[in-house]
Amino acid sequence: MNAISPLAAPSALDVLWFLPTGGDGRYLGARQGQRVSDNRYLRQVAEAADQLGYHGVLLPTGIGCEDALVTAASVAPFTDHLRFLVALRPGQTLPGEAARQFATLDRLTGGRVMVNVVCGGNPADLAGDGLTLGHDERYAQASDFLQIWRGLMAGEKVEFAGEYLSSRGGRLLFPPVQRPHPPLYFGGSSPAAHALAAAQADAYLTWGEPPAAVAEKIADVRARAAAHGRTLRYGIRLHLIVRETEGKAWDAARDLIRHLSDDTIATAQRKLSLESDSEGQRRMLALHGGSRERLEIAPNLWAGVGLVRGGAGTALVGDPETVAARIREYQVLGIDTVIASGYPHLDEAYRVAELLFPLLGVGRARAAEGGANLLAGGGSFSTTSDGFPPPAPSPVEARA
Ligand SMILES: Cc1cc2nc3c(=O)[nH]c(=O)nc-3n(C[C@H](O)[C@H](O)[C@H](O)COP(=O)(O)O)c2cc1C
């Protein structure tokens, strides 16, 4: 296997958004403001992310969400540039079939597929899918899986007899657009996860821990990768709560959890700690200990989301300059990819792009260009004193 990452030379920063395939809403843990993530809504989020210039969108896997690959295939035709970071659970699909699926999606999207290898952290859910391996065995199985998958994608005739998976003369006749294969992203915080990422992934992902903890994880994965003669890219998964002022941002953070009862928090915490064997999840829970009293666990890093949500449980909260500066702190550590989200995902995709993208130097800012063209070429409508067009008329007026 080659030791060179198939990823292009790192750009300054890739900012991805999240497709909420398990449902969306305005508040955590509340019925108020809930949104159904049907195909039309997911398409809206994908189209917005595409138009705003997000690098891609992450699609999760698990029993609490729609299938990642099928969802990506269903919204991709409505996008032009957006990449799809699609979760793939080794062992749930055999490597030959998974290679064909991802190669096909890569071909049909013109090379816009990225793969997030997910070994899973909920043994009961995994057993429901027929996967009964223990924690470290799942990584050993994933190692077999990736060796076969990568060989097939690279056009090799694969002869592989692993402890868990094998291929006898496996071939892929319709290769992916991206060679040797779409980039492999990988998250997990246990030693077994770090070892596998170092040996076979192209990018390592961490949930949003404080900078010092992220630095330690990167150092460990980097050292392990160096032992294989490899280098990886590094990404962080965070929620973002960005508003024009610090005060408004912290108000929005409090607002997000305003309907959460102490009972709901306690039930969610118990469930997350009992049901998960994930080291990453354990680290997320330890950040706040289930208490809403000490949620700012590092400057501007707020753990409120993790009171009830499994997985990514932290948000950067602040005004645009502050949040951009916090992201830069992670960049200095080696992070070159931010996978962001915010509730609700359609509205917040716009807010983050409008407030943060200009400071991060990313995105296409097409909406702003459209507004500028309108102003430059128009003249038939009045502007407000700050130079922007007046608000759109109400639907009733618009009909007249
Ligand atoms: C950015 C990121 C995204 C993840 N997405 C998923 C997912 O969609 N589904 C899932 O079951 N686990 C997901 N995970 C969890 C990990 O893949 C991993 O299986 C889990 O944390 C257990 O690994 P650990 O014990 O090594 O930490 C994700 C992790 C990270 C860092």
Helix content: 40-55%
Per DSSP E runs of 2 or more residues, the count of β-strands stands at: 15
- Could you give a short account of the major beta sheet? 8 strands, parallel, barrel
Total domain count: 2
At the fourth level of CATH, the homologous superfamily of the largest domain is Luciferase-like domain
Structural class: alpha/beta
Count every helix, treating DSSP H or I runs of 4 or more residues as helices. 15
The span between the termini is 66 Å
CATH architecture of the largest domain: Alpha-Beta Barrel
Order of helices and strands: EEEHEHEHEHHEEEHEHEHHHEEEHEHHHH
Spans of at least 5 consecutive residues with low confidence: 1-10, 366-400
Average of per-residue pLDDT values? 90
| Radius of gyration, CA atoms, in whole angstroms | 22 Å
Please identify the top-level CATH class of the largest domain.
Answer: Alpha Beta
Question: What would your notes on this structure say?
Answer:
This protein is α/β, with parallel strands linked by helices. It has 2 domains: 14-362, Alpha-Beta Barrel (TIM Barrel); 365-400, no CATH class. 42% of the residues lie in helices and 17% in strands. It is built from 15 helices and 15 strands. An 8-stranded parallel β-barrel has the order 1-4-5-6-9-10-11-15, surrounded by 8 helices. α7 (211-227) links the parallel β10 (203-207) and β11 (233-242). It starts with 13 loop residues before the first strand and ends with a helix. Mean pLDDT is 90; it is low at 1-10 and 366-400.
